[in-house]
Design the sequence.
């Protein structure tokens, strides 16, 4: 298998730049912008804040980091990292809070403690909560919890119009989240504690809390640090890699290895393009959160000359490739040649930019975790492409 | 990770061909990977994932032309 002309393996970066390993002259480096600071999980598995425009290599649950690309989000929960400030909900029987009790996922003594208990009875509860009236609609709330006793504990975590259930909290930090909805005039909230009405509740719990977040959308994004006011994290815009010389071949292969695809409910593309919608090769996620679209467009106002729509699980790793040459376009999905199109068409012209959006113009950005992307200046054989895309 | 836990990974820095860690290189093999990594590291402010990058680059290097 011939080496790629461009290869991005997330490893080296500086402010505004994610370096591609190939080419070595820097001609394939990606630009990255983000209007605010943001957090990531670093190599030591600790949450870390990085400055605006600094790419984020995220090591969450992995020995090999991914390039984290997220949409803009606002955390409406105040004092996100000081969960001691969460309010004891009125009517709670017994909820004792202690500030700065244990080592948080930040690696510092900033997690708070909640010792709660209830007497046996179906209407009894002891919970703390965080809420907002600044937002209404669908929301995702999340919080990091761990057991202080070394034993698993059943903890109720719920919000407005969310499931009301107990979650198992272990001795290890874990982020819990749910999906809720609040109408205008109602609070959006997250409550944590004991609801005796749930059949599997403990009568006492002793847990640590950290990193509360209430955000618009249907999945939790990286922790956004707040204090006395809400905070918005800007989106990651990444692209502008390569030049016309790099993509000048009359055939090629585009490959992407995606660790996780975020379910934004919007189309988002990874593309090699001429900087417009007219000529481009795109591997993108559909707004239905269950399907990708792989397509090739060439001149004439971006007429699509070949395409394929695979159904994929967005929560798992997916490897996809497109090979292209005159009259033959092949689509590979997770180790399978899924489709071959043979229109009497040539490849797009003027390709010059690799980007994590649909046309290098920063629209319809792709949000997810990226392991690896490559461009080969030749068509890989079927065996090569299958090997490359096998997960 | 929680207080007192044992790290699941370790980090011993970035060995370079003519400096720290150079004893790990097999000088009888002429690999382009160390030079690629050195070049990458020299351009960057932050450099992580040496292990994963080396693995992928070595796989690429071992590909038939």
Sequence:
């Amino acid at each position: 298998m011939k080496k790629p002309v461009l290869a991005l393996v997330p490893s080296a970066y500086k402010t505004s730049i994610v370096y591609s390993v190939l080419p070595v002259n820097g001609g394939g480096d990606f630009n990255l912008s983000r209007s605010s600071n943001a957090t990531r999980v670093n190599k030591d598995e600790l949450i870390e804040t990085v400055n605006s425009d600094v790419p984020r290599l995220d090591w969450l649950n992995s020995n090999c980091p991914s390039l984290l690309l997220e949409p803009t989000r606002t955390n409406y929960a105040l004092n996100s990292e000081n969960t001691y400030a969460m309010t004891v909900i009125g009517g709670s029987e017994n909820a004792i809070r202690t500030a700065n009790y244990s080592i948080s996922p930040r690696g510092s003594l900033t997690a708070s403690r909640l010792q709660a208990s209830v007497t046996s009875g179906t209407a009894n509860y002891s919970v703390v909560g965080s809420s907002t009236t600044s937002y209404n609609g669908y929301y995702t709330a999340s919080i990091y919890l761990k057991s202080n006793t070394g034993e698993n504990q059943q903890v109720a975590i719920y919000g407005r119009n969310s499931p009301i259930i107990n979650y198992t909290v272990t001795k290890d930090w874990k982020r819990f989240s749910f999906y809720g909805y609040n109408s205008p005039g109602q609070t959006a909230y997250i409550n944590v504690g004991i609801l005796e009405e749930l059949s599997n509740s403990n009568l006492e719990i002793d847990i640590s809390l950290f990193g509360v977040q209430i955000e618009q959308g249907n999945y939790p994004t990286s922790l956004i640090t707040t204090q006395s006011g809400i905070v918005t994290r800007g989106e990651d815009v990444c692209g502008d890699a390569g030049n016309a010389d790099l993509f000048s071949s009359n055939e090629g292969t585009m490959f992407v290895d995606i660790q996780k695809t975020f379910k934004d409910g919007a189309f988002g593309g990874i593309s090699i393009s001429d900087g417009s919608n007219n000529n481009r090769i795109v591997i993108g996620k559909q707004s239905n959160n269950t399907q990708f679209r792989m397509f090739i467009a060439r001149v004439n106002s971006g007429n699509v000359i070949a395409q394929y729509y695979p159904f994929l699980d967005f929560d798992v790793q997916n490897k996809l490739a497109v090979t292209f040459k005159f009259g033959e376009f092949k689509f590979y999905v997770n180790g399978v040649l899924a489709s071959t199109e043979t229109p009497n068409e040539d490849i797009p012209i003027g390709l010059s930019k690799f980007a994590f959006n649909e046309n290098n113009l920063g629209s319809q950005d792709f949000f997810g975790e990226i392991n690896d992307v490559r461009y080969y200046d030749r068509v890989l054989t079927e065996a090569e492409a299958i090997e490359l895309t096998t997960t | 990770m929680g207080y007192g836990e044992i790290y699941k990974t370790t980090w011993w820095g970035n060995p370079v061909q003519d400096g720290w860690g150079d004893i790990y290189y097999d000088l009888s093999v002429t690999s382009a990977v160390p030079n690629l990594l050195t070049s990458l590291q020299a351009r960057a402010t932050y450099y992580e994932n040496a292990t994963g990058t080396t693995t992928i680059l070595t796989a690429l290097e071992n590909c038939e032309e």
User: Anything to note?
Assistant: The radius of gyration of chain B is 14 Å. The CA atoms of residues 10 and 31 of chain B lie 25 Å apart. Strands of chain B lie at 46-47. The first helix of chain B runs from residue 33 to 43.
